[in-house]
Amino acid sequence: MSHTASSKPFRRLLLTGAGGGLGTLLRERAKAWTDVLRLSDRTDLGAAKEGEEIMCCDLADHDAVLKMCDSVDAVLHFGGISVEDKFEPIMQANILGLHHLYEGVYKAGVKRVIYASSNHVTGFYRTDELVDADMPLRPDSFYGVSKCFGEALSRYYYDRFGIETVCLRIGSSFPEPRTARMMVTYLSYDDFVELVRRSLLTPRVGHTIAFGVSNNETCWVDNRKAAHLGYKAKDSSAPFADKFPETGVRPDPADMSTTFQGGPFILAGPQY
Ligand code: NAI
Ligand code: 15L
User: Whose CA is nearest to atom 4 of ligand 2?
Assistant: First the structure.
């Protein structure tokens, strides 16, 4: 994972979704790991700053995605639809787009991808269950289903071609928790960056599923199968307890979104 031209571990990293919430954070923080940070999104990213190059495209554009992957050492894939939506846009960005990305990664000889999966691949587990990486997927939305596809596709590229991926099942990574549920799923920005750093720099990751949560008082996930990453959360949602004294969710038999870990995504899906 290292090269000799500079003290940084990578020569060129690709960051997709660079205009989004987590992408904007990584645009600043990932520069510590690479000589050149290649940024991509379908939205305008402004002018390239020092140490950056910009190659914007839509993930649904096959040829552009293949070009975007050329000459990169590893990919931080944070682009795509990040909430529940109609199936068509999710399919274009998160399913077709992901296939384009892995074709590009294969053709460019990229060795590792850090893939933004989501807690919504297991959102249909109840809030009194502890979920680990080997339990069957139980997506809670079309969005969650698309992230299951990403986990399966990356597994296939590892088994078939040895391309390593760390699938980060991110909880809720925002400056602070926004709801009582997020007191459980909160991942602070610093913990998020540390999890990404370890996912990139751990010498061998194979195909790893890691849950992205801070050290919150209530926890719905068991991260022991990602112990080789050495990730130890430093932050917690506890300082926000005054805002959300009813941490978690109070189950209400009349409202499915309170019974399952996926919360509002449970009811956001198709309205037939
Ligand atoms: P975001 O919605 O702020 O950023 C996503 C970016 O992807 C946007 O800038 C958007 O323009 C871009 N994008 C969407 N469709 C695209 C397409 N077809 N082609 C190219 N770019 C496209 O989301 P956020 O919060 O930054 O999340 C980043 C990733 O992490 C997403 O994949 C999301 O699903 C995942 N994630 C985030 C969580 C969080 O708490 N922030 C929780 C779980 C997963
Ligand atoms: C996600 O997967 C979304 O990308 C993010 O916007 C949040 O809604 C998060 O899950 C969550 O569950 O809070």
Answer: 82
Taking only the tens place, the pLDDT of each residue in 124-174 is 999 999 999 999 999 999 999 999 999 999 999 999 999 999 999 999 999
Cα–Cα distances in angstroms (integers) from residue 62 to residues 11, 96, 97, 99, in the given order = 25, 9, 8, 9
Predicted pLDDT at 5: 63
Helix, strand or coil, per DSSP, at residue 52: strand
Helices (H) and strands (E) in the chain, counts: 8, 9
The per-residue pLDDT for range 14-34, each reduced to its tens digit, is 999 999 999 999 999 999 999
CA of 3 to the centre of ligand 2 (A): 35
Pairing mode, strands 74-77 and 131-132:
unpaired
Report the nearest atom of ligand 2 relative to the CA of 82.
4
What does the alpha-carbon distance between residue 50 and residue 76 come to, in Å, rounded to a whole number? 19
Which ligand is located closest to the Cα atom of residue 78?
A: 1
Query: What is the per-residue pLDDT for 251?
Result: 82
Residue 21 CA, closest ligand 2 atom number: 6
